[in-house]
Amino acid sequence: MSIETRLQELGITLPQAAAPVASYVPVVIHNGLAFVSGQVSMIDGERINGRLGEDMSLEDGIKAARGCGLMILAQLKAALGSLDRVERVVKLGGFVNSTPDFTDQPKVVNGASDLMLEVFGEAGKHARAAVGVSALPLGVAVEVDAVVAIKGD
Questions:
Q1: Is 122:48 a contact under the CB 8 Å cutoff?
Q2: What distance in Å separates the CA atoms of residue 140 and residue 48, rounded to the nearest whole number?
Q3: Is the model's pTM score more than 0.90?
Q4: Ordered alpha helix ranges (H), 11-147
Q5: 82-129, pLDDT tens digit by residue?
Q6: I want to staple 64 with a disulfide (CB 3.0 to 4.6 A). Which of 16, 73, 141, 148 is the partner?
Q7: Residues 139, 49: contact at Cβ < 8 Å?
Q8: CA of 24: how far to CAs of 15, 21, 36, in Å?
Q9: What whole-number distance in Å separates Cα of residue 68 and Cα of residue 56?
Q10: Which residues contact 1 (CB under 8 A, 6 or more apart)?
Q11: Helix H or strand E encompassing 8
């Protein structure tokens, strides 16, 4: 089954790949790997701003991380032409805008991790970091980057 078919079955529509907001490119492909720059939390074209442990619930953080995951997929599709070229999600790095006493960063970043498993199955299983930070660009709640192995490169 193609990944496009899988996305349709899951009822997932990918957003438009966002343009960079600073001096970087969204995806670099090198030696069979796609390095996806950090994607900030957006849902339906709107940035999800906030701080976990202060003005955002855990559930809202999980949704924000899923939004990051959707944008990672959109960036990969734009760079590769097709998500069927994804061989494996190798690693995700999750950054959660959170208060010093908030310790559920791994649960928040599960929003992106679980999406990769839904879409790619076994190939979506990955290594990961989930860290709390005192601030993120543009005041967003979550940022996630990725390293993905590419078929045929």
A1: no
A2: 6
A3: yes
A4: 58-80, 105-120
A5: 999 999 999 999 999 999 999 999 999 999 999 999 999 999 999 999
A6: 141
A7: yes
A8: 20, 8, 11
A9: 16
A10: none
A11: helix 3-10
